[in-house]
Structure formats: C-alpha cells, structure tokens
Amino acid sequence: LVVLSQSAIATLDKQKLVASGSIKDLADTVTGVVVREGAAVPDISTVEAFKQALLNARTVAYVDPKAGGSSGTMFAAMLDKLGIADAVNKNAVLGGGGHDVAVSVAEGRAELGTTFISEVLPVKGAQVIGLLPGDLHNSNTYTAAIHAGSAKAEAARAFLAALTDPANRARWTAAGLEPAF
What we know:
Layout: E1 2-5, H1 6-14, E2 24-36, H2 47-56, E3 60-63, H3 70-82, H4 85-89, E4 92-95, H5 98-106, E5 112-116, H6 117-120, E6 126-131, E7 139-145, H7 153-163, H8 169-174, E8 178-179
Parallel strand pairs: 3-4, 3-5
Antiparallel strand pairs: 1-7, 2-5, 2-6, 2-7, 2-8
C-alpha cells in the first residue's frame, strides 16, 4: 500500500504504477501556527495580522522546501506572495519535516512555526494556536493506493479497508486529521 499526498498518487496513477480502482482518500491535514506552550500568543486572526506576527517573530520555523515537504513548499510560496520572504528567511529555522518544526518551537529555537497540525500534536511543549487565516488556509489530502505490481494486493486491500473503517474515525481525528471516508 502506498500512502502519499493526493497529487503524488495522481502522478503514480498517470504512470500506471497503482492498481486500477484502488485509490482511496484517507484524511486531510490542515496547516496550523504553533508556539511554545506558555508563550505569548500572537494575533493571527487575519492575513495582515499573521503577516505582522511573522515579521515580529524573532525566529520562524517551517519545513525546508528543499526537503520536499508540501507544507514547506507552500509556506515559501506564501512568504513570496506576502512580500516578506527575505525578512522572514533571515531568521528562519528550517526543519526536515513538520515534526522538526514543532520540536524547534517546543525547544525554544524558534518563536513561531507553521506546519501540518497532525505533525505538531505529538510534540510535547508545542501548542497549535490556530489555522492559517483567510485565503492562506492550506490543507493536504493523504491518499492511499495499491501498487500495481504488489505481490500482496489482497493484504493491501484488507489493510486499506481497516484504515477506512468508520469505526476508526476517532483515531484519525485524535491525530489531528479529518477523515475523508
């Protein structure tokens, strides 16, 4: 079973690398803003307020776009769109993934961070203070598919059925994900 972003699975499907009819959306994760537990909470209620919070932060953590993560690529493009990329990147703390971002904030190496909420929740000391505001809102859909050459396609189907059993929705939600089934 392959679990990737919806767009990555679509690419594999076009290349005929996944079994026909096996694609299933699993869950959405949303980009949030994170601070260290107990730290002052900046205003992120509007795009302009969030922009100011980024500019006021001593350091901002996000996923290094070169690491290939979708949240980092999106955030770098957003900084460009807001016209503050140079200012924020002067003091950026880049992580290899969302977990790294949350740890950087929890340990005080970054004052403010942004990554998928599902990657923040397991990190003690990191606190999600909200979603990206307004038209900056960002979510990513995780999708599963069975590899076209799988030697264990039936086992993969059974695993996928277990993952998408409505009885398991609460587990997905507790992990900061919104089930797509």
